[in-house]
Amino acid sequence: MKPTEPEWRQAEDDPCVMIVDDEESIREAVRELLESENIAVLTASCCAECLRLLQDGFRGVILMDVMMNGPDGWSTIRSIEKAGLMEGNLIVMLTANDAPDDRANGLQECVVDYILKPFDPYNIVSSVRKYLALLGHTECSGVL
Fold it and tell me: In b/e form, how buried is each residue of 107-122, taking b as 16+ CB within 10 angstroms?
């Protein structure tokens, strides 16, 4: 049986940031903010969409909401780990909580940063640029 080709593969100029949030208004606000800084973005409204984009080849910075309907952000990270899709990705949690809760047990090493809601636009942009640079994604960091 021949493996199927992914629907989408990341090319050098493809988006390097994925926003995972079940609230469309948050996804769109963060997308517009980053795109205004010339940072290309993909969005996912749930765990399943996030996993599909990762399986299709996305690698980069993942801005993950903690509190989502269905699998929450922590469950989504567990699914990413279980599927072997952590390599080449850095996860930044978007949260209203100032500290991880019990659901984060064993997953802290998977998360590089926490950005508190309501968030400061400058903080999101600077964090994303920093983590894109760490991953070597200088072509999509919005810095020319």
Answer: beebbbbbbeeebeee
- Tell whether 6 is covered by a domain: no
Domain assignment present for residue 9? The answer is no
Q: What is the CATH number of the domain that holds 108?
A: 3.40.50.2300
29: domain range?
A: 17-140
Q: What is the pLDDT along the chain (144 residues), one digit of tens a residue?
A: 433 334 444 455 567 999 999 999 999 999 999 999 999 999 999 999 999 999 999 999 999 998 898 898 989 999 999 999 999 999 999 887 665 555 555 556 678 888 888 889 999 999 999 999 999 886 665 544
State which amino acid sits at residue 63: L
pTM of the model: 0.84
Distance CA 38, CA 137 (A): 13
* CB distance 79 to 71 below 8 Å: yes
Q: How far is CA 44 from CA 26, 40, 120, in A?
A: 11, 14, 21
Whether 69 is in a domain gets the answer yes
Would you say residue 4 lies in a domain?
A: no
Domain count, the chain: 1
